[in-house]
Design brief:
The protein is built from no helices and 9 strands. By secondary structure, it is mainly beta. The protein has one domain. Strand 8 and strand 9 form a beta hairpin. It is globular. The model has no long low-confidence stretch (mean pLDDT about 90).
């Protein structure tokens, strides 16, 4: 399951902010994840498994680090991991389906 996330900026001080990522079902609730300001302006989506993004172009990055192609689809995804691909600008965050 792939779902668009609701992103809200929270000012930390006069020069810095963070991105609060919320479920679209509970857009006025508590954030499910936080991203740094370096992801500002990029679309954010929630995914629940590798199957949601297996058709994307490699290489994949998990939490900012490139992973080997052999691990794609075989490694375990844990809630809160960020995944990026080379063929789109989206940031994917792994989330439990019951929270979406």
């Amino acid at each position: 399951m792939i779902t668009d996330a609701v992103v809200r900026k929270t000012q930390i001080d006069k020069d810095n902010h963070r991105l609060d990522v919320l479920s679209p079902k509970y857009s006025s609730g508590q954030p499910l994840a936080y991203l740094s300001r370096f992801y500002d302006g990029r679309p954010v989506k929630f995914i629940t498994s590798w199957d949601d993004i297996m058709n994307k172009k490699r290489p994949f990055k998990i939490n900012g680090g490139t992973i080997q192609d052999g691990l794609v689809g075989n490694s375990t995804l844990i809630r809160g991991m960020t995944i990026e691909t080379t063929d789109d600008d989206n940031v994917y965050i792994v989330m439990d389906p019951s929270l979406l």
